[in-house]
């Protein structure tokens, strides 16, 4: 019974890519920036080899490196154009995005907003790039007084709709997102439409866990190939949303990282064959975008604290792969994602120990590796490193 557990630590980048300057991300290194916090403590990831990865090892003193680490490690470059969640996850799953998704630094075109207002029956306010917490602070009272929808974007390819749950019921907000998703196609095909509900009174508004993402449907991914082969694809967290449900055979949403780990371990204790694909979003959504270095460090340390439970749940044929989808350096002035390499750590009873396979050209090498391990002929991008990490 072959099983792969693929865990994405959302935004845990490990250093700027060669083209980072094209994205205004020179100098970004999310992991290193976070390690400066007094709350940073990752002894279990250290044992797996995190700090021995190319581009990480030269940032930390020799005392942080493991002479004999117990995993197989690599540094992965992003081949796609972009640095967001959709682009990163799609590449992990075998799609190279040759063109970036559209972004709107000056807001969305008037004709799009006019049509959105017509179809929803509500006016739009803001329509600018904004921080998610700042936008509700600035526009929340007007929204509550008028019922107008707060529409905003960011440096990523997103159309976000913020609304107070007492003003716009959740189901109604989701319907508005579906309308926006229908409108945002072709040249305006943003990566994601996101529902951003909030509660509370000014100035103490709080975003709730009822966020919901509406992604474009991807082309063929490893998820499709695995499910088409009759195997299981279990999504935990945002995975279903990121892939618009394509190829996912079972899914559970989560409210935070702790719940994500609990849902992962539940699935590890069940019998299935195939892939369990997990996104732990708090690093990015709660801490990276808010430039909260200490919060980010605490979240990483908390994951590290839970890692032994995950390792203990592995069976003889299981492979655990830990990676990321982009960076979000909390130490830079920007609150946006950063164009960075990501880590790849593989662990299991069949996986070589103390094995550094260097820097790989694409996140999609993960897709190729997973498919080869599950004995499925690869039809997506990527070069498998399975034979480089398996014992014997």
> Largest sheet, if any?
8 strands, mixed
List the total number of helices. Answer: 13
What spatial order of strands do you see in the largest sheet?
Answer: 10-9-11-1-12-13-2-14
Reading off the top of the CATH hierarchy, the class of the largest domain is best stated as: Alpha Beta
Quantity of strands, as a count:
14
Helix and strand content put the structural class at alpha/beta
Shape: globular
What is the string of SSEs from the N terminus onward? Answer: EHHEHHEHEEHEEEHEHEHEHHEEEHH
Mean pLDDT: 97
Strand content: 15-25%
Distance between the termini: 19 Å
The percentage helix is 25-40%
Low-confidence stretches: none
Based on the coordinates given, report the CATH architecture of the largest domain.
3-Layer(aba) Sandwich
CATH overall fold name of the largest domain:
Alkaline Phosphatase, subunit A
Overall tally of domains: 2
What is the CATH superfamily label of the largest domain?
Alkaline Phosphatase, subunit A
| Rg (C-alpha, Å) | 21 Å
């Amino acid at each position: 019974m072959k099983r792969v557990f693929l865990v994405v630590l959302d935004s845990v980048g490990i250093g700027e890519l060669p083209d980072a300057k094209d994205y205004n991300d020179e100098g970004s290194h999310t992991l290193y920036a976070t390690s400066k916090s007094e709350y940073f403590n990752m002894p279990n990831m250290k044992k797996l080899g995190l700090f021995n990865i190319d581009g990480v090892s030269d940032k930390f003193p020799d005392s942080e490196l493991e002479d004999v680490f117990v995993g197989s490690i690599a540094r992965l470059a992003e081949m796609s154009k972009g640095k967001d969640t959709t682009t990163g996850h799609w590449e992990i799953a075998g799609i190279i995005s040759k063109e970036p998704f559209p972004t709107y630094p000056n807001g969305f075109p008037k004709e799009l907003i006019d049509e959105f207002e017509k179809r929803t029956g509500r006016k739009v306010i803001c329509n600018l790039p904004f921080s998610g917490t700042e936008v509700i602070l600035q526009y929340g009272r007007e929204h509550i007084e008028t019922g107008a929808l707060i529409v905003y974007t960011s440096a990523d390819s997103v159309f976000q709709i913020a609304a107070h749950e007492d003003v716009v019921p959740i189901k109604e907000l989701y319907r508005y997102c579906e309308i926006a998703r229908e409108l945002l196609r072709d040249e305006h095909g943003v990566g994601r439409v996101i529902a951003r509900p909030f509660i509370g009174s000014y100035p103490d508004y709080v975003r709730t866990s009822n966020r919901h993402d509406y992604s474009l449907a991807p082309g063929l991914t490893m998820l499709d190939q695995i499910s088409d082969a009759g195997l299981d694809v279990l999504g935990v967290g945002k995975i279903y949303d990121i892939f618009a449900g394509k190829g996912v055979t079972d899914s559970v949403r989560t409210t935070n990282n702790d719940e994500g780990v609990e849902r992962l371990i539940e699935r590890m204790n069940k019998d299935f064959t195939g892939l369990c694909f997990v996104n732990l979003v708090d690093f990015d959504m709660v801490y990276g975008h808010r430039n909260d270095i200490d919060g980010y460090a605490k979240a990483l340390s908390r994951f590290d604290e839970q890692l032994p439970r995950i390792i203990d749940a592995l069976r003889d044929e299981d492979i655990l792969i830990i990676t990321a989808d982009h960076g979000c350096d909390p130490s830079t002035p920007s609150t946006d994602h950063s164009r960075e390499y990501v880590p790849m750590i593989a662990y299991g009873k069949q996986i070589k120990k103390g094995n550094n396979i260097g820097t790989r050209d694409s996140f999609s090498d993960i897709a190729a590796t997973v498919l080869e391990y599950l004995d499925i002929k690869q039809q997506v991008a990527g070069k498998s490193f399975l034979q480089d990490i398996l014992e014997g």
